[in-house]
Amino acid sequence: MEFLERGGVRIAYRVHNAAGPGTPMLLSHGFSATSTMWDRNVGALSADRPVVVWDQRGHGRSDSPVDPRAYSAAISTDDMSALLDKIGAQRAIIAGMSLGGYLSLAFQLHHPFRVAALVLVDTGPGFKNDAARAQWNDVVERYARRVESEGFNGALSPELADAVHHNPGGLAPTARQVMAQHDDQVIRSLDDIAVPSLVVVGENDPNYLAGADYMARHINDARKVVLAQAGHASNIDQADAFNTAVLEFLERL
After folding, report:
1. What kind of architecture, by CATH, is found in domain 2-251?
2. CA–CA separation, 75 vs 141, rounded Å?
3. Terminal alpha carbon distance of the chain
């Protein structure tokens, strides 16, 4: 792994096929996972383009600051922008799973001219409804408290068992500051997305099937793929089918 320093916080990343001629791709992992969750995908996806994987702050080999002010969705999307600067990419295909997918949408909202396309994996766009958003934030807070009380055992995502977080110290502030939602800007931005987008969801991921449908309906140039016999980490559960779907999408660009 290489490291990018952002205000005293080291962000771990790796570039696959740095000299590839195609448009670079940035892959963002899900909450409590690491960049290794893409290990079954990067070989295929980087065949003709640079592919950047990274550990979000508070995860993996990146630093886990104690100060909660070091975490927010805006800070995370700025980390993504800084990574593109680091590899000299003006634009990239922005892809992410779960929390990484939501951050990809937030990146599109705040840095639209840096997005060549979107790949949104087992994720959702947030909530328009204040009550639904408050309910989500209650779930997030309970999860944060569980991590604080149980440590690593409270942080594991079973479907990401091969790509788990190395140090749970940053997970509670990530939950409270990045996962928690305070407005509906991201979901309301879907109708304005003007780049080709691929929405991927596992057929056995009931919490995100409706969100996938919603994104596919509201993003103008969107294609949805439902992967059979796949759960919340469809890129791991059905890696070959996932790689095929993404590569077919990339051929359109």
Report:
1. 3-Layer(aba) Sandwich (3.40)
2. 20
3. 29
Domain residue spans of the chain: 2-251
Q: How far, in Å, CA of 184 to CA of 128, rounded? A: 5
Strand partners, 197: 118, 222
Distances (CA, A) of 13 to 8, 10, 94, 99: 16, 10, 15, 17
Query: What b-and-e string marks burial along 215-229, b requiring 16 or more CB atoms within 10 Å of the CB?
Result: bbebbeebebbbbee
Tens-place pLDDT, residues 3-48: 999 999 999 999 999 999 999 999 999 998 899 999 999 999 999 9
82-99 burial code (b ≥16 CB/10 A, e <16)? ebbeebebeebbbbbbbb
Phi, psi of 56 (to 5 degrees): -60, 150
User: What does residue 46 show for φ and ψ, rounded to 5 degrees?
Assistant: -95, 15
